[in-house]
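Hi again,

Forgot to attach this to my earlier email, sorry! This is the prediction with adenosine-5'-triphosphate bound. I've pasted everything inline since the attachment limit keeps bouncing my files.
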Amino acid sequence: MLTLDEAFRKFKSRLELNDKEQKNASARQQEVRNYLDTKFSIANSFLTGSYARYTKTKPLKDIDIFFVLKDSERHYRSKAPSAVINAFYDALVEKYGEEAVRKQSRSVNVDFGVHVDAEDNTDYRILSVDVVPAFPKGDDYEIPDTDTGQWIKTNPKIHAERATAAHQAFSYEWKGLVRMVKYWNNNPRHGSDKPIKPSFLIEVMALECLYGGWQGQFDRELQSLFSTLADRIFDTWPDPAGLGPAISNGMDQARKRRAGDLLMQASRDATAAINLARQGRNGEALKAWRALFGPKFPLT
Ligand SMILES: Nc1ncnc2c1ncn2[C@@H]1O[C@H](COP(=O)(O)OP(=O)(O)OP(=O)(O)O)[C@@H](O)[C@H]1O
Ligand SMILES: [Mg+2]
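Structure tokens for the complex follow:
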């Protein structure tokens, strides 16, 4: 039978980005870029966000692509953020259709209509991308935010450096743990509303909530991480780059209470699973972890 450690390692590797998926993401980037080049003057585009930091969970969806606009498009920068979002939306609808394209506060989402099976597999294809219009601002970027009606500053390089440093300081297990908690956050048993929103908040909290160094056991690290996240969900979590609005702004008090309760429950469920394994009831422990995380957690 699969040991707990083997199960967690398999789970971790199932949440890792592989070559086929990267090829598909790059092909989609190129496809969207080639099309948008016919509509806007784009200086460059790149895959970014959690995808580029290896902190995105599966199935791969909402992969962020920055489209950095040339100076000739600067007129959008002096308009409300909705103007550029609307322009990108209209352009993308022309190619992908109204059904596949959705406006979000900082991006336009394009869904490729990929099927997800019961085990959360997608035949190595990405489900969707978030098209983010951006303007350079010194070493940073400015992106539209239609929620606040403001342009916000961001810097993907700083976020990437923070994640890399945390990963190194945690014996290279930090990103794996972040992907696992993000996978928990997506578990359909929470209903259509994810406990933590945006899920970037999980990564930002993990920068501080995983401390003391890797102790060698996934089950114990996760139990303690869920518990610390529950304790600190009511804190204010600023942008780790110190540029954009607080990441915790995405949740009001009621949402934070719900997230706190669900995180506490996850921590209790993890304790129960650890106890099952301690009693030698391995099969039941594996099932308990799978119920907690979802179908990518292996039973065999
Ligand atoms: N409030 C903010 N201020 C500045 N930059 C931000 C802010 N929120 C997000 N970002 C940057 O934009 C990127 C994309 O945001 P998004 O919400 O898609 O998060 P993500 O890290 O990609 O997580 P997910 O796995 O949910 O896609 C983030 O990775 C981060 O670099
Ligand atoms: Mg993202």
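DSSP finds ten helices and seven strands in the chain. Residues 253-278 form the longest helix (26 residues).

That should be everything now.

G.
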